[in-house]
Amino acid sequence: MATIELRAPRDDAERVVAGRLVIPSAALRLGAAFAESGYALHLVGGSVRDLLLDRAAATPDLDFTTDARPEQVLALAAGLGAATWDVGIAFGTVGLHLEGVACEVTTYRSESYDPRSRNPAVEYGDTLEGDLLRRDFTVNAMAVSLPQQVFVDLFGGLADLELGRLRTPAAATESFSDDPLRMLRAARFAAQLGLQPDDELLAAMAELAPRLEIVAAERIRDELGKLLLAEDPVAGLELLVDTGLADVVLPELPALRLSIDEHHQHKDVYRHSLTVLEQAVALEGRLPGGGPDLVLRLAALLHDIGKPATKRELPGGRVSFLDHDRVGSRLVKDRLRALRFPKDVVRAVADLVFLHLRFHGYGEAAWTDSAVRRYVRDAGEELPRLHVLTRSDCTTRNARKAARLSAAYDDLEARIEELAAEEELGRLRPDLDGERIMALLGLPPGPLVGRARAHLLELRTERGPLPEDAAVAELYAWARTNGIPVP
Predict the structure, then answer these.
(1) Quick one: 327 and 273 in the same domain?
(2) Can you spell out the DSSP letters for 193-247?
(3) Distance separating alpha carbons of residues 28 and 182, to the nearest angstrom
């Protein structure tokens, strides 16, 4: 390790960065190897930014830029005995492992989009200054030249980091036109680092929002996921909506800004959804794996996206959103599939949206044990997330009502735990499995076995576990009703 002392004026800065920059030994070793071969090497980007903020653990990988070409970088890595990968070599990037650290070394470059293309066109550059100029934001355009350990800040990134300000090294319109995804990154950094875009950047985002249409869905998905998993996702989401970016990447979100009727009988669903998200983030400690949890945060944000399509004006100024859970589940599937989220994420979020109203009414009418079992069965492995989502969905300002809802859900969770202890509720299965059903009825594998199993599962849900002789009797009764011979 090596330490660089930084001398930067603080003035009345709103935030203070570390006064020292500690350079990892892997970076120093790599820098020495490049220098011996006559090449320049610089630690850059988020690696420098997070070292300054003393949050290197957030981005443990290291990013470098160099005047060496990719084939020369590969040769240098081989000389160090480092394992390499070349997935990004078409974009001038070589990956390597050194001292247990993942490093990406990219040749000086310029990058831009053809207005008709979804893929960046890459050209190699000749200078560090040119490379830093093409980077997304000034806070990511700082570098440390190696092995000399010289801190390079050509565009005021350190001052912006201290002030919590987000700017681009080049003109914002030029930067965002070249790579429209940078506009989403701006929202992500607002959520992740609390950085506030300056006026030029905000104006460029609003002007160029339609340019996001040329960006591949997978790249948008990745940035949106990082934003949602940040410490303050609401700050980033508000920026997306306010600049019009959400109209392109997640139009269902701004659509939640329903007008409040003249009687003020219902809430702004957009603001409610952001509050639910904030509360879900605060309750993630209740999840078995803790947080941040992408599925829960997506479900919290999108649980009411079916409301605009189901809004109905009723007499007396009242409003209804009948079936918004069912409609919302379908809309969630459509949007998340369009963004290329994995199938398991799509399914889990859609299920949570579909189930988020199930708890309503529990406090007014006592549920039977069968109703509790059905709640657990339908939630399946999403039950812990459903617990958190349902609690988070209470945003009333009426303290007495909020306390009543919380107590009711406490009671439901306690009943679930009691039944789970008695009946292994978390592994709710029919009392007879498929093999036993086939043996008892002399059936081959097929739909009839599935129907018999579903019938027994419904009985299990309704009545709890049955003794085997009772389960067999119920199976035979079902078989007779369906014209299946009973031995």
Answers:
(1) yes
(2) H--EE-HHHHHHHHHHGGGGGGS-HHHHHHHHHHHHTSS-HHHHHHHHHHHTSHH
(3) 30
Q: Are 170 and 182 in contact (CB under 8 A)?
A: no
Same domain, 412 and 314: yes
Torsion of CA 134, 138, 140, 144, to 10 degrees: 90
CA atoms within 13 A of residue 200's CA, in its CB half-sphere: 13
Residue 390 and residue 356 in contact, taking contact as beta carbons nearer than 8 Å: yes
User: 360 Cβ partners below 8 Å, 6+ apart?
Assistant: none
What sections of 39-85 are H helices per DSSP? 46-52, 70-79
Alpha-helical segments (H) within 303-398: 307-310, 324-338, 343-355, 369-379, 383-392
Label residue 468 exposed, middle or buried (CB < 10 Å: 0-12, 13-18, 19+): exposed
Q: Has residue 486 been placed in a domain?
A: no
Sign for the pseudo-dihedral over CA of 391, 392, 393, 395: positive
User: What's the CATH number where 201 sits?
Assistant: 1.10.110.30
Q: Which residues, at least 6 apart from 53, have a Cβ–Cβ distance to it below 8 Å?
A: 17, 18, 161, 193
Kindly report the CA angle at 127 between 121 and 128, in degrees rounded to 5?
95
435 lies in which domain range?
A: 429-481
What pLDDT digit, counting tens, does each position of 86-126 carry? Answer: 888 888 899 999 998 999 999 998 655 555 555 556 678 88
pLDDT of residue 204: 97
Whole-angstrom Cα distance, residue 32 to residue 37? 9
The confidence score (pLDDT) of residue 20 equals: 66
Q: Is residue 282 part of a domain?
A: yes
101 and 141 in a single domain? The answer is yes
Q: What pLDDT shows up at residue 408?
A: 84
Whole-number pLDDT of residue 163: 93
Q: Return the SS3 of 444.
A: coil
One domain, residues 191 and 323? no
- Asked if residues 63 and 104 have their Cβ atoms less than 8 Å apart, the reply is yes
Residue type for 177, please? S
- Calpha distance 395→407 (Å, rounded): 15
pLDDT in tens, 42-68: 999 999 999 888 876 666 789 999 999
Same domain, yes or no: 137 and 185: no
What's the CA gap between 307 and 319, in Å, rounded? 10
Average pLDDT over residues 36-47: 94
CATH number of the domain to which 379 belongs: 1.10.3210
